[in-house]
Amino acid sequence: MITVMRYGHRPMRDKRTTTHVGLVARAFGADRILLAGTGGVPKSILDVVDRWGGDFRVETVREWRRFLRDFQGTRIHLTMYGLPLGETIDEIRERSLKGDLLIFVGAEKVPPEVYEWCDYNVAVGSQPHSEIAALAVFLDHLHRGAELECEFPGAELRVVPSERGKEVKEL
Amino acid sequence: MITVMRYGHRPMRDKRTTTHVGLVARAFGADRILLAGTGGVPKSILDVVDRWGGDFRVETVREWRRFLRDFQGTRIHLTMYGLPLGETIDEIRERSLKGDLLIFVGAEKVPPEVYEWCDYNVAVGSQPHSEIAALAVFLDHLHRGAELECEFPGAELRVVPSERGKEVKEL
Fold this sequence. Notes:
Radius of gyration of chain A: 16 Å
CATH topology of chain A: Alpha/beta knot
Distance between the termini of chain A: 27 Å
CATH superfamily of chain A: SPOUT methyltransferase, trefoil knot domain
Number of strands of chain A: 8
Strand order of the largest sheet of chain A: 3-2-1-5-4-6
Shape of chain A: globular
Oligomer: homodimer
CATH architecture of chain A: 3-Layer(aba) Sandwich
Largest sheet of chain A: 6 strands, parallel
CATH class of chain A: Alpha Beta
């Protein structure tokens, strides 16, 4: 099971980026997102799960520190200050075959204990960019691109890939 | 040369996502971003270029339709309705060795002529997620991950990758 923990969700300011993080988590093969803090759950994530299928879960967790500290599995913190993705991903993939993963994704400044508690601090490039991009590329490397062909059971809608225009099948 | 064209930048609503798109374009090896429309340039992109190096350019273009239509090179529209990334990326990479690329990234609804004018409509997965993620994964596949080790000349700051914590070198 792959859990994404989204830290620093401030309801007003971060609503759209949290939505992006949630949709990326789902589309790239994570099983759930935990929103750390008191912000509500963006409705647009739930709408996508409803219409596009799968059993991706969206939850909030107030005691995120305890949850992260006591998590049974491999904890990965995505940060531009960490070790390169290329040096760590094979080991993390090995671990994912034997147990659960938690991927910690920050928005605002991340408290220092996160760097300590996580088993891996991983940099998707050492340049400032976007936690949304970092999560997508991390999951894409973890699954070696196979997640892009994933099917979502129970969908009402499915895209029929096309060279021009939009084709959507209602199921 | 790789240009990213960001369509549908509404200054208030999209400022943060446009910033993410711009930073991802830079970090994943594009040369410039063109903001289509009348919104200003987010200062945070320019700040990153100043401090973290490289010669990434940020420009606005009012006549984006004409620019896209008349662009000399290969035009790629990232859309969940397009052809799978895996089926198109090798051909696009081939073309990128011989000429320029323009990658069109939408936010709001994209006008139908974009689907017509672009040489490729490419889906980074056929699930709804994020134009930020789509751009990052597209560029990562285009460069086969090599962009993550790219150096940015003229930087004031450089990250020293570390297992725990943050180490930044001032240059």
